[in-house]
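LAB NOTEBOOK - FOLDING QUEUE
OPERATOR: T.R.
BATCH SIZE: 2
PURPOSE: Compare the predicted structure-token outputs for two unrelated chains run back to back under identical settings.
PRIORITY: normal
REVIEWER: second-year student, initials M.K.

ITEM 1
FIELD SEQUENCE / FIELD STRUCTURE:
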Amino acid sequence: MHVKDKVIVVTGGANGIGAAMCRRFSQEGARAVVVADLDEEHAFHVAEEIGGLSLKTDVCVETDIIRLVNETEKRFGPIDLFCSNAGVAYRDEPLGMATSCSNENWQKAWEINVMAHVYAARAVLPSMIARKQGYLLNTVSAAGLLNQIGAASYSTTKHAAIGFAEALSITHGDDGIKVSVVCPQAVATQMLGDFDDGGPQGVDGILTPEEVADSVIAGLAEETFLILPHERVRLYMQRKTSDYNRWLNGMRRLRRSFLE
């Protein structure tokens, strides 16, 4: 897909990767870009900058997603590309165990990192299937393909997000629906937190949101399922699947190196 003349929705579009994608889609000539976010102020500023529309949206609330889709279609017509980009990450605190994250934060991670993708697909698929065309782009993470040391709830929900995206592609590819997941490692956003060097996930460098947006444009043009801004992730995936025990031992060594 080339985004020129397309109607595009981006959740989590007020900041970080979402904002960078909104700006890049506009630069590429999208007909309409809708910036959806719970952060109403920053969403408005991004939309104002690119001549788009901002809509306050809580991706945890399915009726908000339905309203977002309905309002977009009412103003601009059918949605060509829906980018389910909002995400959240919690560390394994306070004890540093894989079970340390609170039940509340596990639930939030599930709702935002997984169910928001489900709500988005449920809202847009009927119209897309009827037209035999449409594109779903889900922002996931390399943590969904590998893992993220010190963030079990993040890694687990991102694995689930990959599984759901695969199901979308398998089930609806014959309906004309395209699906991609963008899976970066460390990106210079608020989610990176206090790690100046990116922590364990930053071993291959920290990309800017704009660099991730560049990868998205290239991936959409190729209509590839797996978009990897950090290309080395592909090698790590191959190592993981070829020898799981060796990969786990390597991840333990990496974890220990950051505890020293």
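ITEM 2
FIELD SEQUENCE / FIELD STRUCTURE:
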Amino acid sequence: MISMAVDYGATSGNGQKVVLATSSPRRIGLLRLIVPAFEVRAPEADEGPIRRPADHVSAARRKVMSVWGSPGEIVIGADTGVFRRGRFFGKPKDLDEARRMLSQLSGGWHYVYTGLFLVHGDHELSALVATRVRFRELSREEIDWYLAREDVLDKAGAYAIQGAAAAFVAEIRGDFTNVIGLPLGTLYPMLLDLGWKPVVNDAHRE
């Protein structure tokens, strides 16, 4: 059973239906930058335990398979997490855990990994994308200020780089969209490999 299906035009101009297996408004917004027409289906699959970065690819596959409806569809799944010194930082269960996460990410580098999984007919593609992010030293007051501003309980690592936490970032190496949750620089060629073609909007030619 699919708990949510939002139609964003669903079928692209080349007749292919693109489906994004997500309940994340951030991923929806990012995909809309390159795919003007797609459908959103909220996956019901359990993401499973994450012990190492590669587990995000498996989690993305489970999301895709839980919503896949037709061989003619291109279905996209993504799963994102944060690691520092081999330790996984997922979504915090409460504000106390979020505060501890941000304190541990303060003043050093961490990795943001996103597992991608795409299926179209008999074809499956997967990728694991890594981005390095360095936070400057954060005071307790800064962390409390941030947690009072934004809801972080649905965010890996207890922060959103596209929000106020951008002020904490001293340096970033890699794909910025990967940190948000959908690495467009990797996803775009994967879509092309599956036969998807970008649509030219004549209205923008004038």
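REVIEWER COMMENT (ITEM 2): The chain has a mean pLDDT of 90.
FOLLOW-UP: none requested
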